[in-house]
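> forwarded from #structure-qc
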């Protein structure tokens, strides 16, 4: 359990570094240039992340699972992954350039071309992170992320001082990504990663057939979290995109908490499923409870103090996005649930079922955004996220119930739901003058409910054992 906690903290540090440094850059753009320029920058990055997701194609999940469960075949798995990364990264780069040439305004083309240089390295980096997670050396991911983001921030400051604008920022992002790639290769060698030989087309195609469900699922998941930015840009313009992006950036920092925790838990879920289906189910449910209990206080804080957080970070010009941030914050517990159940279902080799759930969620997300953006403004995008996240959570819970372990209705289940939802509703409905008091009362209610319904001593004792698979060694 101690190593699980250490790996979770390492993944949290690595994942949080990205939005923290990006947040600093976004704040600088917002204060120096205003919402419209921030909207252009956020739109470009949203597009880039979609194509980077297509390049990495979810291979880190597949590689992590295979390396964790079959370490004796690590050289073959890494070789196939690297071959596929070269192919998928090249295709995604060409697709990004084609999209930019036909659909982006002319003044953004050069910046997009510079950003395209990061797509192929991102695919290779996915294989490196899979190796580090499978070998439980998550701290190496943190080291790479720290180096990359420190350079990115330094180059962003240089771009501002030199007056290089958005183009200079994009060049800094590209340079930092290449640094991350090189640092990852060095750390893999020091960790004893096996040599794999040159990439081959046959290896790429063979791996591609296996990774296909993961690739589609990962790309759709990334699109799910970026399509709202694209739709706000298309339907509301650059100014509203910047205002929405200010709230979205703060929300994204907290969103990485469940993702980081699952980065540490996922290899153990894969191993525990192979060893014991019962232990795997218990591990999943306790992970869910722990993450929800951990993230609800942060959600309550954003709901109650959105105005102060936005004003402190961006200035008074962005206070209009406070309601948007509150609505986004209410979705955070749902994303914790979706993160745990989604990766647990993939660890159980139910990625096909999870793919169908995500497709339904994405379709709901797009339709709800189109309808609500025109009626509610940028608050409609936040409401659409909550609606579609609820659809995914219900679908994943149903799949887990039918294929892994039954979720029994009863006092504990309904008490758990009330423990999570009650404090959030109280905080959301509280008048502005009563929000600090509502925050305190909500925390007390959450604490009482967590002790009564969510976490019990017997749960902790059983799942400590479930998270103790045999120690992993890597074959050379």
């Amino acid at each position: 359990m101690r190593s699980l906690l250490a790996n979770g903290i390492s993944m949290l540090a690595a994942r949080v570094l990205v939005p923290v440094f990006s947040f600093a850059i976004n704040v600088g753009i917002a204060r120096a240039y205003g919402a419209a320029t921030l909207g252009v920058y956020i739109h470009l990055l949203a597009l880039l992340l979609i194509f980077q997701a297509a390049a990495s194609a979810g291979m880190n999940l597949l590689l992590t699972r295979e390396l964790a469960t079959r370490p004796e075949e690590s050289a073959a798995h890494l070789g196939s992954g690297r071959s596929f990364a070269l192919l998928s990264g090249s295709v995604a780069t060409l697709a990004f350039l084609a999209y930019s040439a036909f659909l982006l305004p002319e003044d953004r083309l050069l910046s997009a071309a510079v950003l395209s240089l990061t797509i192929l390295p991102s695919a290779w980096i996915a294989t490196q992170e899979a190796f580090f997670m499978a070998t439980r050396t998550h701290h190496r991911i943190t080291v790479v992320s720290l180096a990359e983001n420190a350079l990115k921030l330094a180059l962003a400051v240089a771009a501002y001082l030199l007056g290089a604008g958005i183009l200079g920022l994009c060049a800094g992002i590209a340079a930092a990504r290449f640094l991350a790639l090189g640092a990852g290769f060095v750390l893999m060698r020091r960790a004893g990663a096996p040599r794999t030989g040159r990439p081959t087309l046959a290896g790429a195609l063979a791996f591609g057939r296996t990774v296909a469900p993961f690739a589609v699922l990962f790309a759709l998941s990334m699109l799910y979290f970026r399509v709202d930015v694209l739709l706000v840009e298309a339907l509301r313009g650059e100014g509203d995109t910047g205002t929405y992006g200010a709230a979205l950036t703060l929300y994204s920092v907290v969103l990485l908490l469940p993702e980081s925790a699952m980065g540490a838990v996922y290899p153990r879920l894969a191993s525990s499923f192979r060893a014991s289906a019962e232990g795997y189910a218990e591990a999943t449910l306790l992970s869910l409870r722990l993450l929800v209990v951990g993230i609800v206080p942060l959600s309550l804080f954003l709901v109650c103090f959105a105005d102060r957080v936005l004003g402190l970070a961006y200035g008074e010009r962005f206070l209009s996005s406070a309601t948007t941030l509150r609505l986004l914050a209410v979705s955070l517990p749902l994303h914790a649930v979706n993160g745990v159940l989604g990766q647990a279902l993939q660890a159980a080799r139910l990625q096909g079922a999870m793919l169908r759930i995500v497709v339904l969620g994405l379709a709901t997300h797009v339709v709800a955004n189109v309808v609500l953006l025109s009626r509610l403004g940028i608050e409609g995008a936040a409401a659409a996220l909550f609606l579609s996240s609820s659809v995914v959570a219900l679908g994943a819970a149903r799949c887990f119930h039918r294929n892994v372990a039954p979720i029994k209705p009863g006092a504990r289940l309904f008490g758990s739901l009330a423990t999570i939802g009650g404090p959030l509703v109280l905080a959301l409905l509280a008048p502005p003058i009563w929000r600090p008091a509502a925050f305190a009362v909500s925390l007390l209610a959450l604490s009482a409910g967590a002790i009564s319904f969510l976490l019990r001593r017997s749960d902790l004792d059983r799942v400590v054992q479930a998270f103790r698979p045999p120690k992993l060694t890597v074959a050379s």
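QC bot note: The chain has a mean pLDDT of 82. Residues 60 and 130 are 5 Å apart (CA to CA).
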